[in-house]
């Protein structure tokens, strides 16, 4: 096979890879945009707002704002919950703390078992409903966070695809450029003949 044909074949294969990478990058970009848009719109509908900045001035254990919330929750003071990262902070650093401070540390299965053992206990019935709603909302917020992370991963995938497509496009261009400067007769495995001196 001639060197020119080899260059053309490999460069054409590289061009196909460039197209595939561009399509992948485009799809990943669309996926990132779609996920972020849906996460934001779904969270916006819940109309959840972080406590105002003044609420974090005097944190107390067992109150609405505890000392453990200052490093994470306070950074979003007064903001509406709209992003996956905010959803994670609300679920893990705000709701989970309040659930833990409830009887049975807010574990639904334990509260439900206690209620089933004493179904006439209205306090346990109310606690069970409260914990069920809190745990459900917390799970939904963590799902929003997970989808937001998937969207973020898609964005990085898109950046990697477009970057690789650019590098490959440069190599393809060099391959076609080299093919244009190579003669049809030049062999891929051409070796220089060596002259052996006769003694």
Which characteristics define this entry?
199 residues, mainly alpha, 4 helices, 0% strand, elongated
Estimated share of beta-strand residues: under 5%
Largest sheet: none
Count of all domains: 1
Q: How many β strands by DSSP?
A: 0
Q: What's the shape? A: elongated
Report the structural category.
mainly alpha
Radius of gyration: 31 Å
Enumerate the spans where pLDDT stays under 50 for 5 or more consecutive residues.
Answer: 191-195
How much helix, percentage-wise, in residues?
55-70%
Whole-number mean pLDDT: 90
N-to-C SSE string, H for helix and E for strand: HHHH
* Alpha-carbon distance between the two ends: 37 Å
Q: Counting H and I runs of at least 4 residues, what is the number of helices?
A: 4
Could you explain how this protein is built, in words?
This protein has one domain (3-180). The longest helix has 59 residues, at 122-180. The radius of gyration is 31 Å and the shape is elongated. It is mainly α. α2 (84-100) packs antiparallel against α4 (122-180). The chain has helices spanning 3-46, 84-100, 108-117, 122-180.
